[in-house]
Amino acid sequence: MQLTERHRLYWRKNLTITAILMAIWFVVTYVVGYMARDLNFRFFGWPFSFWMGAQGALIIYVLIIWYYARYMNKLDQEFGVAEEE
Fold this sequence. Notes:
Blueprint: H1 5-35, E1 42-43, E2 46-47, H2 48-79
Antiparallel strand pairs: 1-2
Helix pairs in contact: 1-2
């Protein structure tokens, strides 16, 4: 199958958003987790490092999934490859 310029543009946009969201995931998972021990203030009555590890990261992960699904649905519709409902 020969890829057209439209296919390449679709995949370029897909890979770009994937890379951005993976970078956010990396920062939330490793950078914030590593630096959390230095965050010594209270947040809703708990140490911020505990809150970020137990709750904050999960919220960010759900937001990443929500945004990716929404973005890809719009991209699929823009390029005419959306699933029929």
